[in-house]
Amino acid sequence: MTLFDLSDRIAIVTGGNGGIGLGMAEGLASAGAIVVLAGRNAEKGEAAVRRIAQAGGEAEFSEVDVTSETSCRALIDTAAGRHGRLDILVNNAGINIRKSPDILSAAEWHTVIDTNLTSAFICTHAAYPHMKRTGRGKIINIGSMMSIFGAGFAPAYAASKGGIVQFTRACATAWAKQNIQVNAVLPGWIDTDLTRGARREVVGLHESVLARTPAGRWGDPKDFAGIAVFLASGASDFVTGAAIPVDGGYSVQG
Ligand code: NDP
User: Fold this and answer.
1) For the chain, does the N or the C end have fewer beta carbons within 10 angstroms?
2) Sequential DSSP letters for 71-94
């Protein structure tokens, strides 16, 4: 369908080698985009590339450490240079260090903020000239339920994800007239490597998520294919600065 067609679009997904990032990358590839999966773990990256190829899509892996400005800029400029353009950027790479604020160290704070928030700024900053040149662009930032709610075990993570939403709004406002749409996706509780750790460390988390989520289940990375295609395609050309929950109803449950 033309409205959601991404043929020949070039997309970069940070953390696209697994979890939610791969779910989004698979959606983008199925709609025709050529997707650059960026992450640290090349083995995971090559497996993800094969998975997309087996489904008939086109993807490649590019190694990046998003905590390094040099590495982020090299990722964006190399991919845009190789393909001659950059249409879609998904700022998805993220980590959590689960500690209460009184025992979180400054170094741990910086690690989480650098990985989840500063990386989105650097990658977006590097992507902007390429999008401006072609007269259009789609940037998708990944927030969290902690963009909305507090959590005693995730002070730096919550700060980074609150920051992602405000950064999204700033860029959306700045670049709307240049036809660059910038939106955030706020996942609910999704079954990935990240939350497998949380389920081990936070007693009762698994059950409380099931109880609170109206859909009655944890999310799956596949649940992010549709929102990725929507926000990357012409279907969302008048949608910008939004923060869209994909959470099975978690955030609207009273
Ligand atoms: P995963 O742990 O499966 O994926 C995280 C991804 O980030 C990995 O692909 C990892 O790549 C990449 N990454 C982490 N640090 C770096 C780094 N320094 N440089 C490059 N890549 C890095 O978790 P999710 O899929 O769950 O998380 C994806 C995003 O979704 C995150 O931003 C997370 O905060 C967010 N989110 C997740 C929720 C959930 O319930 N799962 C809920 C709300 C938000 P590599 O393995 O190569 O290091």
Assistant:
1) C
2) HHHHHHHHHHHHHS---EEEE---
pLDDT < 70 regions, the chain: 1
- Residue 141's H or E segment, with its range, is strand 137-142
pLDDT digits (tens, 9 = 90+) for 222-252: 999 999 999 999 999 999 999 999 999 999 9
Write down the domain spans for the chain: 2-190+221-246
User: Which residues surround ligand 1 with Cβ inside 6 Å?
Assistant: 14-15, 17-21, 39-41, 44, 64-67, 92-95, 115-116, 142, 144, 187, 189-190, 192-195
pLDDT at 4: 98
Residues with Cβ within 8 Å of residue 46, at least 6 apart in sequence: 61
Q: Give residue 86's pLDDT.
A: 98
Quote the ligand 1 centre to 192 CA distance (angstroms): 9
Give the distance (Å) from ligand 1 centre to CA of residue 19.
7
- Residues 109-147: tens digit of each pLDDT: 999 999 999 999 999 999 999 999 999 999 999 999 999
Ligand 1 centre and the CA of 135: distance in Å?
Answer: 30
Residues involved in catalysis: 157
Determine the atom of ligand 1 nearest the C-alpha atom of 221.
25
Ligand 1 nearest-atom number relative to CA 219: 40
